[in-house]
Amino acid sequence: MRKQKFSEFLSQVKDLTEVQRVTVRALLGKTQEEKIPAAIVDEKFSNKPICYECQKNSTHKWGIVSGIQRYRCKDCGRSFNALIGSEVQKSYLSLCSLTG
Question: Is pTM beyond 0.70 here?
Answer without folding.
Answer: no
